[in-house]
């Protein structure tokens, strides 16, 4: 493989859930936020925002929502959100009624693109943080209770939470997780028609994942990758629906 400092940063990425009790200085924070702003943005709509959370009470509540106590200990904590609220206000200044059918930024295509933009910005920030010697973890767990999160952060109409990001100076050194063989994720020209052929290397990957978790959690054995997939596929997510909660924020995802 070809390599350079950027590639090494990306290849050595791992989730950090334990942070040193040290603040992140203003220069580093400004750098991370500026890097996030330089991520790709569909049609340059800049249709995302990030809430920087420093209030201990809000951090504690986010830790409750995510059911992960370490969230409250993160020196730098963000919640990235889809943000068409700002664009709605800008459009309104130009004579467009955001409540009318003329305003298309509330429909599913733009919702999805704004979500993509928010994720790209978050990933850029996370990568920059690792390059500065920091560590972090992406917080999908904050979506456990979307209405509570919306209420806690006072998110207005035409906004919607996407992911959280906790950053800080690492106080742990977890081993790198194995990644599945490239042949199982990268295909030439079309998706493979031979499902069994695509999974030919799955048993070896199952074994590597099983060994990784056995070494990391000797007191709590974890299933192989295939068993984890089977287990998660049966977990109920009916309480995590999107359409109704997005509709409450003004979006119309059926259009």
Automatic annotation (TrEMBL):
- Please state every residue range assigned to the domain named Nitroreductase: 11-169
Record field: transmembrane:
none
Pfam (any one):
Nitroreductase
Entry's SUPFAM superfamilies? FMN-dependent nitroreductase-like (SSF55469)
Q: Name one GO molecular function term.
A: oxidoreductase activity
UniProt keyword terms in alphabetical order? Flavoprotein, FMN, NADP, Oxidoreductase
Judging by the UniProt lineage, the source's domain of life is Bacteria
Q: Which residues form the signal peptide?
A: none
Q: Which PANTHER family match?
A: OXYGEN-INSENSITIVE NADPH NITROREDUCTASE
The entry assigns this protein to a family as follows: Belongs to the flavin oxidoreductase frp family.
Q: What is the designated name of this protein?
A: Nitroreductase family protein
Organism classification: Bacteria, Bacillati, Actinomycetota, Actinomycetes, Bifidobacteriales
């Amino acid at each position: 493989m070809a390599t350079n400092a950027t590639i090494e940063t990306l290849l050595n990425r791992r989730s950090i859930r334990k942070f040193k009790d040290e603040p992140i200085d203003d220069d580093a924070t400004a750098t991370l936020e500026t890097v996030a702003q330089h991520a790709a943005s569909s049609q340059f709509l800049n249709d995302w925002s990030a809430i920087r959370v420093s209030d201990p009470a809000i951090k504690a509540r986010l830790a409750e929502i995510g059911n992960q106590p370490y969230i409250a200990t993160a020196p730098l904590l963000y919640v990235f959100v889809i943000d068409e609220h700002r664009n709605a206000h800008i459009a309104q200044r130009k004579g467009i009624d955001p409540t009318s059918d003329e305003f298309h930024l509330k429909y599913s295509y733009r919702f999805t693109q704004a979500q993509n933009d928010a994720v790209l910005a978050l990933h850029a920030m996370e990568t920059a943080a690792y390059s500065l010697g920091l560590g972090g973890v992406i917080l999908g767990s904050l979506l456990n209770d979307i209405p509570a999160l919306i209420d806690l952060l006072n998110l207005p109409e035409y906004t919607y939470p996407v992911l959280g990001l906790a950053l800080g100076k690492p106080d742990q050194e977890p081993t790198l997780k194995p990644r599945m063989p490239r042949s199982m994720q990268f295909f030439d020209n079309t998706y493979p028609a031979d499902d069994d052929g695509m999974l030919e290397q799955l048993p070896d990957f199952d074994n590597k994942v099983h060994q990784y978790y056995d070494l990391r959690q000797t007191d709590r054995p974890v299933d192989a990758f295939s068993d984890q997939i089977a287990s998660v596929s049966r977990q109920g997510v009916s309480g995590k629906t999107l359409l109704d909660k997005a509709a409450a924020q003004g979006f119309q995802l059926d259009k």
